[in-house]
Write a sequence for this structure.
């Protein structure tokens, strides 16, 4: 398999073949022949690189001790202030989720209402700080697989942090970034999860990544 020289060494031949296969399926003309979002995310997660290549190297971010600007969410992550993070995520809502995925009429009539009801119940529990119920509802929403929402993963991430489940929180933050690779909130939540796990150096890198992504977003908006 021919590989772009910029990608050499980042993927094995088997991983590259799998990526090409997934991309080919996503480009199918008939919607029913494309993978659903849930299976696509599940297939991509194992292909993410482990810690042998630091994330700041992959993103081209200098790794020094220089201070960098942080938004209120970034500051809250640095302070490990989960209450402030909850307030910010509640205020942001779902405005970063973008357009809904293409659905057939049958999928809409049979599944979409159930899926939206699960999300709505999760949102009510999240707003009321009933994080156990929020985790349960958001998990059911994710498992249905009709729609994929980085914000749902972000909210379940914070719910896991509030429930003293940092490993689960980190997994959710990573999945949010798989869905939306340049979403600064996913990086900030990874930082908060890594801080909770005592992985300070990795948390600082994720925090810097979030700051850089947010700055780029602000510059283009």
């Amino acid at each position: 398999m021919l590989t772009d020289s910029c990608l050499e060494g980042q993927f094995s031949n088997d991983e590259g073949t799998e990526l090409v296969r997934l991309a080919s399926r996503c480009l199918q003309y008939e919607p029913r022949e494309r993978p659903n979002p849930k299976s696509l995310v599940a297939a991509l997660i194992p292909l993410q690189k482990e810690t042998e290549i630091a994330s700041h190297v992959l993103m081209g971010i200098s790794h020094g001790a220089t201070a960098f600007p942080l938004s209120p969410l970034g500051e809250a992550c640095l302070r490990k202030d989960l209450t402030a993070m909850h307030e910010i995520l509640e205020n942001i809502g779902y405005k970063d989720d973008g357009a809904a995925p293409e659905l057939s009429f049958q999928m809409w009539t049979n599944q979409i209402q159930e899926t939206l009801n699960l999300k709505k119940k999760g949102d009510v529990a999240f707003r009321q700080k009933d994080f156990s119920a929020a985790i349960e509802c958001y998990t059911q929403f994710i498992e249905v697989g009709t729609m994929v929402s980085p914000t749902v993963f972000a909210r379940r991430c914070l719910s896991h942090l509030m429930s003293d489940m940092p490993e689960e929180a980190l997994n959710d933050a990573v999945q949010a970034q798989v869905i939306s690779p340049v979403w600064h909130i996913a990086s900030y939540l990874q930082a908060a999860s890594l801080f909770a796990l005592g992985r300070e150096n990795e948390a600082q890198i994720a925090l810097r990544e979030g700051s850089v992504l947010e700055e780029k977003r602000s510059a283009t908006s």
